[in-house]
Amino acid sequence: MRLQRLRRLENLVERLAAVLRQQPAVQPRQLQTAHDVIGLLHEQIEAIRLASYPDAVKQARAIGYLANLARQAIETGDLAARLEKLEANVEQRTTSQARRR
Known about the structure:
The protein has one domain. Helix content is about 80%, strand content about 0%.
């Protein structure tokens, strides 16, 4: 319970500091790769963990949902990397076979 209150206070202090600096609390970011998405999801999960939610079940659901999206983004990134390697291997084989002919 104390840890939860401490997190709420930390979140409030961060928000207040952003207002006093007259900077937006959320910086715009472009999402172009799976790694970018994973970073954003990690950031949002931490924000939800630090935010004060009156209903712990809703907070847990939100974190679970974002964690599932992060898992899917990780899988997509891994598949994209594997696909790039396969494409490079096929390209290399194609060029080496063309040289032999």
